[in-house]
Write a structure and sequence with these properties.
This protein is α/β, with parallel strands linked by helices. It is built from 18 helices and 21 strands.
Length: about 500
């Protein structure tokens, strides 16, 4: 796993490396400049051309740019620097003094590649004046762009921006920061490359970036001497007359992820049209009223033998759904996954029932659903999702999978980021598939945090593979993602 740091953690690591490990700030800047120069050279060699421009601010990020420009000039490239200010930090001023090449005041039309070294990870707000002009000119130049540490204008903590450079390659100096991954970060960073420059962490990082190798052990080759009971039972409680597709997608995903049994419980009115639609699933007619689930104790107890239960997909918001969730929280002891209308029903009728639950609990909200649960505006969830999810998970003793372009997974002790997704998943049905995957993974014995990591990563990987097959992100549908799950699991075993 790659480390993912907050900006405060990165600053603390810089200070620790300099003060406690005796590495000079200038040496760190030299290493950063060399890393940026090497990535710029590689990109320019790939695309062709010789003319480079470093656009430099006055902070240490600008110092990295001055250093990279000097190194590239010594390597024979046609290099110039556009300084946006004469007010520089001491380290930036030292690097500026070492540069003896061309200095310009604009971007030449002949420029093949721009090194963006205007703002670092500590920037927040909106670029103004000459800085706003520089961001706009970089984006309008048509040149390839390599960002030093982070695209200028992007918030290093939460990945939000008003106006920011759009880079082809971003060189994450030392460690990956949260802003690289969250919100607008992936759209502005382009290809993210982490380069180690010898910065040491004074303590373990708050977060890590999920990789396929981290979940591959959950999908080891099957032993020959096994049977269906060896792989657990997943139960899906989902659907309403208005949303008959959600339970089918969830159950199909669960079946594709290898659990031994998949039980699909749907409102009794929905039972007749679904008979035979998924012959591999055990279809159950669940008590309901006018197509909405009813909290009938006997029917709920019949589900409690399952090792993983997913509830809420396409159910609608109702007291019946709330009653089902409440019963399972009070009586079920394995892994319970709450999604969609299970979460919305909790938000509508009271989250206090989350306290004191017996099960291993996983919540899978998108930002709007989480906003309803935690009582914070959606804008705050987008800006402070890591802290809000961490606090919620800690308070309610659960795991939260906050879905997004990069999903945040936390159990109130650990934080994991999953950047495997694709915009092709931004459509109805993807969450239903996720819940089915989670139920199957839980059925195979994973705890709630492991389940969240595996389900989120597999959904993202399957979405990418489906997009590759369809060749159009707009045209990928949830059933395409289900069909790609087998290939996604195979890819894990090959890593």
């Amino acid at each position: 796993m790659e480390n993912v740091l907050s900006c405060a953690e990165m600053r603390a690591a810089d200070r620790y490396t300099i003060a406690e490990r005796g590495v000079s700030s200038q040496l760190l800047m030299e290493r950063a400049g060399r890393a940026i120069a090497e990535e710029a050279e590689a990109l320019l060699n790939e695309r062709g051309g010789r003319r480079m421009l470093a656009v430099c601010g006055g902070g240490n990020n600008g110092g990295d740019g001055w250093c990279a420009a000097r190194i590239l000039s010594l390597r024979g490239f046609d290099v110039a620097v556009w300084p946006l200010t004469d007010r520089c930090s001491p380290d930036c001023a030292a690097q500026r003094a070492l540069y003896h090449g061309e200095i310009v005041g604009c971007i030449s039309p002949e420029t093949d590649l721009i090194i963006d070294a205007v703002f670092g990870t500590g920037f927040h707000g909106e670029p103004e004046g000459v800085y706003a002009d520089a961001v706009a000119r970089i984006n309008g130049s048509g040149a390839a762009v390599v960002a030093a540490d982070i695209p200028s204008g992007l918030n290093g903590e939460d990945g939000t921006c008003v106006a920011a450079v759009r880079a082809d390659v971003t060189v994450a100096v030392g460690e990956v920061k949260r802003g690289h991954l969250l919100n607008d970060g992936p759209d502005h960073c382009g290809r993210l490359v982490r380069r180690d420059i010898g910065i040491e962490l004074p303590e373990p990082p708050s977060g890590v970036l999920l990789e396929g190798a981290d979940i591959a052990p959950l999908f080891l080759p099957r032993r020959r001497n096994t049977h269906k009971g060896s792989y657990g039972e997943a139960a899906i409680l989902a659907g309403s007359l208005s949303y008959s597709g959600a339970p089918l997608l969830s159950a199909s995903a669960a079946l594709r992820c290898g659990c031994g049994y998949t039980r699909l419980a749907v409102p009794q009115e929905l039972f007749p049209p679904l008979v035979g639609r998924i012959p591999e699933a055990i279809l159950t007619a669940f008590p309901s009223a006018e197509g909405a689930l009813s909290a009938e104790e006997g029917a709920l107890r019949a589900l409690c033998d399952a090792a993983g239960i997913a509830v809420g997909m396409g159910c609608g918001v109702s007291r019946g759904v709330y009653g089902c969730v409440r019963f399972l929280l009070e009586n079920y002891e394995n892994t319970l996954i709450l999604d969609a209308d299970a979460l919305n029903s909790l938000a509508a009728y009271g989250t206090d029932v989350l306290r004191g639950h017996k099960c291993r609990l996983l919540l899978t909200p998108h930002p709007k659903e989480f906003s309803r649960l935690c009582g914070a505006p959606v804008a705050d969830v987008l800006r402070n999702g890591v802290e809000l999810a961490f606090r919620f998970a800690s308070e309610y003793n659960c795991t939260v999978l906050l879905k997004g372009c990069t999903s945040i997974i936390t159990d109130g002790k650990r934080i994991c980021f999953n950047a495997e997704g694709t915009p092709a998943l931004a459509k109805g049905g993807s969450g239903d598939v996720l819940s089915g995957i989670a139920a199957a993974v839980a059925a195979r014995g994973a705890d709630a945090f492991e389940t969240a990591c595996a389900a989120s990563f597999l959904l993202g990987r399957a979405g990418r593979l489906a997009e590759e097959r369809v060749r159009c992100a707009d045209s990928v549908i949830a059933s395409d993602v289900v069909a790609a799950l087998a290939s996604a699991i195979i890819s894990l075993k090959e890593e």
